[in-house]
# Entry
Amino acid sequence: MKRLNVIYLLTLLSVFMIISCQGRAQKSTTQSENITNQLDSLISAEERQGFHGVVHVEREGKEILSKGYGYANEAAKRKFSPETFVQIGSGVKDFTKVAIYQLVENGKLKLDDPLSKVMPGLTGSKLQITVQHLLNHRAGFPLGEKTDGDPFTTAEMIAAVQTLTLKAEPGAKEIYSNLGYSCLAYIVEQVSGKPFDKYVYDHILKPIGLLSTGSYIPKYDRANVAHGYGSDGKDIGIILDMPHDDNGHLWSLRGNGGYLSTTQEISKFFHALENNSLLKTEAYRKAVFNPANHTMLAGSDMVSFFLFSNMPGLKTRVIIATNHGDYPGPKLLRKIEGLLFGNNNSGSGMKAERQIDLGDGNEG
# Structure
């Protein structure tokens, strides 16, 4: 008789636990649905104020919103969708970092190797510039030597590095530099023996299934590529029309910008940095992206914006791509973060670990 009572009590307890878990799951689902509806209402209101783009939001590792708003191509009346190819600006730099750290892991490169090891003709303080300096924007280089639309060949890029005057001694000061990341792309090419885009495709994109990311290796449907529109409303075209050769963009963009992707594929890339899919060394993974830190990454040519915001206090990530200069992406991100923090004060007042300098009109 006692044994039957124990079984009865255990059965009741199990039923209670199942009902309790179902209740928590339903509550969590309801909360997510509420947040999704609030976000969609907010963004739809901003669409009426001139926002055009794609918004991707994840909470607790699950996608709760992925939706396009406004026009990717006004002339063709092509609306944005999560499948629209958008330019990611300085998001390319994260691929460049991964490429460098992979070469280090494979014993083909050291972080304290000097740039002069692969680039000829450097003199003076430039002989002190290391791979680590370039990664940390501490080589003393300026933002860039050419605008995105200017042809900039390999020989011209090397000559520019050889002759420019450093803005600071190597290691002394952080100065955001697209040119520095082009030098890293040059190192990748020299050490791996592959063009930069081919290396990135073979060792980063293809292994984790990013088949809609890159420049000229994916065969993009140009009709599905977002155009950029200046603050005057003028259509400035697409990133694929920038100067390039058979291997990809020329050196005004190579290694520092110029890629297309989708918000969902970039989300997949950052998730891949949380395991050993791309990098085996935890310190290297965290040097590219540390999911425990509140991080805001931005890339822009001051017309199109690509933004990634990681808010671990809220267990939330937001990715935004925009293409109209009269409605800059950070404006929407601030409103979204305001809504999210307003619903959960646990993360309010947090400051971003890093905000990338958007530059002076070049893609940054």
